[in-house]
Amino acid sequence: MDMHDTQLGSDSDIQPHEDNVFDDFVQTAVHDIESGVANVADYVHHILDPDVLPQITFPLPSLGPTDPSVVPGAAFAPTSLIGDPYDDMTYWHPQTGSNTCAIDSQEFVIEQLTGQPVSEQELIQVAEAHGWFDPQSDGTAMSDVGNLLAFYGLHVDQAMNATIDDIENQLAQGHGVIVGVRADVLWGQSPDTPMTTAPTIPGQGANHAVEVIGMDLSDPTNPKVILNDSGSNNGCGETVPLELFDNAWSYSDNFLVTAIA
Amino acid sequence: MERMMAQSTVAASAAAGAGPKTERLFDELRNTPLFRQLVPMEAGIGWPIPLRRDGRVYVTLPLFSFGTGASGGKQIQLYPPFASVTLNWATQRPVKYVTFRFEAPWTLGPSAEPVGIFPHDAIAKLSIGAYTERRKELLGLYDELCESLAGKGAFTAERSARFSELLRQLIEPSLEPFYRTLGPKFFERFLPAEK
To answer: What are the tens digits of pLDDT across the range B4-57?
Structure first.
């Protein structure tokens, strides 16, 4: 049914839409509201109808995907999204230190779960004071990933050989999730990429930490993992295919850190 | 989920069984409890320095820090090695770990300054694929060298020449002086100093 034929004003007049392109929907809503055919409350009530909502595609701001097959604005139907990536993305920033990925991943989780703003510099100072970060070796030992979370009052668990189901379960419960990955695999370095533009030294194994903030299961044939990756300029809500993520994650023996407020 | 193990055993990596033994060593070393407890995840593992002692073959692996260049053209900076780990080649079990802040073969300041960039000139024009192929070939030659040191097969002059050629191309010039300090005999044999 053409959107323009939709008669609003009472629930019985609202018909299911066959074409739910978001832009058309917005334009029609604006037209109807401005012309007095319907009011805002009508549209809000209509859009929240459980028969209507899953049919509507909401475009998203660009997530800076590393996977070119990911189209910005992909649908995140409520039942197919695990986690709260929209909110978690607001805490992302690129790392200022060369090897502060684990610091920053913990920073994101601390802010998300405690509501307490902290800075990368503050966390570096705390980590250095406790021996969890060495400015000379510049980085965080795997066993120390999570110590900052505990320092700021979170309940922390570390595990090896974790599974995707484990990640999904933790995200579904609103817990913080950090994993170890091999950076050059995660960032999908093509063999044809010139060495001069390689973002990291190839072949160095699991050498990076990222926060997992969501799972996009809207396309069952192409599930995706949503990350806050401080090591990439496009790392805010970085979306990668599950298979690629799983491969990059495997190099750390599927190292997983979870945090609960 | 399995909890992190405390025993000092070598965990099998996801890449176990694929590629040269020396190449697998990089991943397997990262998954040892020793590495996970003492070495930053972000650290780089340098070129192995084989040695033979009391009839056994060992490899010393320098550990160095490097700055990850995020997309946007940032150069990857290399820092002096801050530690090394020596493994028994046959069993791949760590036998020695040295932090250079404690035993200082060279001076490390309170915070290290970069000593060079990656990629260096000899590999800058390669693609990642070409670099990876050469790296894999060199690590395979390391296997042959270590097997030869263990008395299992010969490391022919031809293989030795190819080993030297690849090592010269791939070794980071800014880190080479540090590696030479850690393994003078190895480097004198395979990368003799130009006179």
So the answer is: 443 333 333 434 456 789 998 888 899 899 999 999 999 999 999 999 999 999
Residues of chain B in contact with residue A190, where contact means CB-CB under 8 angstroms, are: 128-129
Residue A168 banded pLDDT, cuts 50, 70, 90: very high
Under an 8 A CB cutoff, do B1 and A139 touch?
no
* Inter-CA distances, A65 with A169, A214, A240, B107, Å: 24, 14, 7, 42
A36 and A162 housed in the same domain: no
Do the domain assignments include residue A69? no
Residue in chain A closest to B39 (alpha carbons) equals: A141
Check B42 against A140: CB less than 8 A apart.
yes
Strand partners, A241: A224
Structure confidence by residue, pLDDT tens digits, B131-170: 999 999 999 999 999 999 999 999 999 999 999 999 999 9
Boundaries of every domain in chain B:
21-190
User: Is residue A67 situated within a structural domain?
Assistant: no
For residue A162, is it within any domain?
Answer: yes
Domain check: are A91 and A135 in the same one? Answer: yes
Give the chain A residue whose CA is nearest to the CA of B130.
A191
Q: Which residue of B has its CA nearest to A141?
A: B40
- Between chains, do B77 and A145 touch, taking CB under 8 Å as contact? no
**Does residue A16 fall inside a structural domain?**
yes
A210 at interface of B, judged by CB pairs closer than 8 A: no
Average pLDDT rounded to a whole number, residues A126-143: 89
Which of A167 and A28 is assigned the larger pLDDT?
A: A167
**pLDDT at residue B111 tops 80:** no
In this structure, are A48 and A177 located in the same domain?
no
Q: Find which of A56-60, A161-165, B72-76 is predicted with most confidence, using mean pLDDT.
A: A161-165
A127 shares its domain with A26? no
pLDDT for B94 beyond 70:
yes
Q: Which of A190, A201, A254 to mutate to test the interface with B (most CBs of B within 10 A)?
A: A201
Tell me the CATH number at A177: 3.90.70.30
Task: Tell me which of B68, B78, B131, B138 to substitute to probe the interface with A (most A C-beta atoms closer than 10 Å).
Answer: B68
Q: What pLDDT does residue A188 have?
A: 84
Asked if A244 is an interface residue toward chain B (Cβ–Cβ < 8 A), one would say no
* A87 and A169 fall within a common domain: yes
For residues A108-135, one letter each, b for 16 or more C-beta atoms within 10 angstroms of the residue's C-beta and e for the rest, the string is: bbbbbbbeeebebeebbebbeeeebbbb
* Residues A87, A42 share a domain: no
Is A161 at the interface with chain B, CB within 8 A?
yes
Range of the domain at A15: 3-55
> What is the distance, to the nearest Å, from the Cα of residue A226 to the centroid of all Cα atoms in its chain?
3
For A156, residues 6+ apart whose C-beta sits below 8 A from its C-beta are A146, A147, A149, A150, A257, A258, A259, A260
